[in-house]
TrEMBL record:
Belongs to the multicopper oxidase family. Its EC number is 1.10.3.2. It comes from Punica granatum. This is Laccase. GO terms for biological process: lignin catabolic process. Coiled coil: none annotated. Binds 4 Cu cations per monomer.
Length: 587
């Protein structure tokens, strides 16, 4: 990387010391820039319990460094990150760097039992990876059970030095992270649900940068406030870190310009309302009014929900406040300004969801090309949805004939192994850990969005798809109406993919292939499979390792809506996965 890491300020010159202090003041990790492109940035994540009060009660939550939401990671494109995670709590855990490509660094990806065993109590692990060819907003979160309910924070990747944004330079940049808050312990909630076979209890509130806003009890002061100067432009880095809910977001009387999604620049477009699924990030430009108006503007987010189950139908609010010219009378009180509220789409407005997603297009220019695979080596068709699974042994479940709720891809409900898949693959010890017979198509064809088949039982197993290096993949993901049609935000680790087309109903290859956008499709890492519809993606399997793909609604992941791709090594030295680090946690 060509970087120099500072060991002790006493040992360096005054010039270097001045830079280090500036870097610390700016919130960056302790480092020194070299003449070369990248630097190495060090972070330390101490996982510890912290008492936090929300909604009239205090509870002990799992945090990084006692912060909620967690600390911001800041890097530039080309930088190397060394993040030491030390586990001081009773839960085993891992951290995932959501959306980071992890080129040849799959050991640092983070999903438990996929690329690593969890970090046990009292143990640590150094996540070591380089941010290659990416810039924008991503985020980090725990990737085991439901611990990401409180373990999450932003990742801000700035362009390389002296490289401008391909949109007007903002006056200020502000991360806005949406989360979900339960009064109860989320680990108990999901464990009880898995035991009973039913749906878990819904959350009590959504949060905006950890705060639920004044519509909730005891929350008049728990409000995120965005203070702006008239006429200035702001870049809002929106992140949906909620567990189970897609969200509509809007600011009263202001329009937003979308300039980036999932850390990929897009053709700018204006919108009143942003739709953002769990796992997605969206950068928007907000242009403040030229003169400070006599009003406070509500920023609100509420759910887009399409499934049959109950959902948290509350609204999280924050305030957009304008800075007013200082009064000549220092004792004069600020006048109480009227509160203007935004109108959001209805909770089940799938038409708005489709319309919004179709507006997202890659820049696809000389500087930022859209490298869409034009030829396809392997085609897959995945049905995604819900089903039932039998309860075994002494377990008594609430479903018909002692069954429990399940979720599946091609009718396979994924069973988490007790050893990490990546180690089993790397050391050729897959026997008893996983099988390579994941179906390329649904085992039985049916009217996916019509009347469900009589038998809605799923099968289960730890099955993967094996891909040779550099295989170009086309994947149709089709929602099903079994138990109920529902939008499923699917996240692929290790890759970005291109969204060729999407639609409602059953995918028809003859008719729908003609709609493919091969010129400037959206490039993302997470996409909502439309409720009662389908989406087609393409990606190039140019990253050796084992890569998780799963629904980012945590309840569906818990029920088995997940699978993994094993990408084999290529022939070249830079096409092979290096051996694991010596401190890789053991199961």
């Amino acid at each position: 990387m060509g970087s120099i890491i500072l060991q002790s300020p006493a040992l360096i010159s005054r010039a270097f010391l001045f830079f280090a202090l500036c870097a610390l003041w700016a919130g960056l990790p302790y480092q020194v820039l070299s003449k070369h492109a990248g630097v190495t940035r060090h972070y330390k994540f101490d996982i510890k319990l912290q008492n936090v009060t929300r909604l009239c009660q205090t509870k002990s939550i799992v945090t990084v460094n006692g912060e909620f939401p967690g600390p911001r990671i800041i890097a530039r494109e080309g930088d190397r990150l060394l993040i030491k995670v030390v586990n001081h709590v009773q839960h085993n855990l891992t951290i995932h760097w959501h959306g980071i490509r992890q080129l040849r660094s799959g050991w640092a990806d983070g999903p438990a039992y996929i690329t690593q065993c969890p970090i046990q109590t009292g143990q640590s692990y150094l996540y070591n990876f380089t941010v290659s060819g990416q810039r924008g907003t991503l985020f980090w979160h725990a990737h085991i059970s439901w611990l990401r309910a409180t373990l999450y924070g932003p990742i801000v990747i700035l362009p390389k030095k002296h490289v401008p944004y391909p949109f007007p330079q903002p006056f200020k940049e502000v991360p806005i992270v949406f989360g979900e808050w339960w009064k109860a312990d989320t680990e108990k909630i999901i464990n009880q649900a898995l035991q009973s076979g039913g749906a878990p209890n819904i959350s009590d509130a959504y949060t905006m940068n950890g705060l639920p806003g004044p519509l909730h009890n005891c929350s008049a002061k728990d409000v995120f406030k965005l203070r702006v100067k008239p006429g200035k432009r702001y870049l809002l880095r929106l992140i949906n870190a909620a567990l189970n809910d897609e969200l509509f977001f809007r600011i009263a009387n202001h329009s937003l310009t979308v300039v980036e999604t999932d850390a990929v620049y897009v053709k700018p477009f204006k919108t009143d309302t942003v739709l953002i699924t769990p796992g997605q990030t969206t950068n928007v430009l907000l242009k403040a009014m030229p003169h400070a108006p006599n009003a406070t503007f509500v920023m609100a987010a509420q759910p887009y929900a399409t499934g049959p189950a109950a959902f948290d139908n509350t609204t999280v609010t924050g305030f957009l406040k304008y800075e007013h010219p200082k009064s000549s009378n220092p004792k004069a009180k600020s006048p109480k300004l009227p509160l203007l509220r935004p109108k959001l789409p209805k909770f089940n407005d799938t038409a708005y969801s489709m319309k919004f997603n179709r507006k997202i297009r890659s820049l696809a220019n000389a500087k930022f090309p859209a490298k869409v695979p034009q030829k396809v080596d392997r085609r897959f068709f995945f049905s995604v949805g819900l089903g039932l699974s039998p309860c075994h042994g002494k377990q008594t479940c609430i479903g018909p004939n002692n069954t429990k709720l399940a979720a599946s891809v091609n009718n396979v409900s994924f069973v988490m192994p007790n050893k990490a898949l990546l180690q089993a693959h790397f050391f050729n010890k897959s026997k008893g850990v996983y099988t390579t017979d994941f179906p390329s198509n649904p085992p039985i064809k049916f009217n996916y969005t019509g009347t469900p088949p009589q038998n809605i039982m799923v099968t289960s197993g730890t099955k993967v798809v094996v891909l040779p290096f550099n295989t170009s993949v086309e994947l149709v993901m089709q929602d099903t109406s079994i138990i109920g049609a529902e939008s499923h935000p699917l996240h692929l680790h290790g890759f970005n993919f291109f969204i060729m087309a999407q639609g409602i109903g059953n995918f028809d290859p003859k008719k729908d292939s003609a709609k493919f956008n091969v010129v400037d499709p959206a490039e993302r890492n997470t996409i909502g499979v439309p409720s009662g519809g389908w989406v087609v993606i393409r990606f190039l399997a140019d990253n050796p390792g084992v890569w998780f793909m799963h629904c980012h609604l945590e309840v569906h992941t818990s029920w088995g809506l997940k699978m993994a791709w094993v990408v084999m090594d290529g022939k070249g030295r830079k096409q092979r996965l290096p051996p694991p680090p010596s401190d890789l946690p053991k199961c």
